[in-house]
Amino acid sequence: MVKRYNNISLCFGVPGLILQILGFILRSPQRHADGKVPATVFLILLAGTVLLLIGLAYYAKAKGRHPAWCLLAFLSIIGLVVLGCLRDKCVTQTEQKHSAGPGKPRKVIGLVVLVILLFVLAVVLLTFTFRVF
Predict the structure, then answer these.
(1) Average pLDDT of the chain?
(2) How far apart (Å, rounded) are the C-alpha atoms in residues 7 and 58?
(3) Which residues contact 86 (CB under 8 A, 6 or more apart)?
(4) pLDDT tens-digit series, residues 59-92
(5) What is the DSSP letter of 28?
(6) How far apart are CA 49 and CA 43, in angstroms?
């Protein structure tokens, strides 16, 4: 793991995650008498998401992955867990020689299935929590 990128990801990701959680708490209808959510709450959510996107992009780069993995920030903490579970690709050449072998496609398929299941779980939890549908 590249420590420089990991430190930058912490500087952006932690405040972003805190702002996202704060925005979700402030967005609850019980907090507002008229039932309308102020625009500042949406700005807090937007700022948290942007910071978390930047943080997860640097974290993906620290693990030797493409920065597009930062799109998991839209799943909030679930995306952070998924990205944290990914294998670190920053390895030396001697480790690469030993790790090459059969069975890699099976790991990729398992990872894709895991991400899809986590996404479905997040949608179900959000549906029951916020009664979206």
Answers:
(1) 76
(2) 9
(3) 63, 65, 69, 111
(4) 999 998 888 888 888 887 888 888 888 888 886 4
(5) -
(6) 10
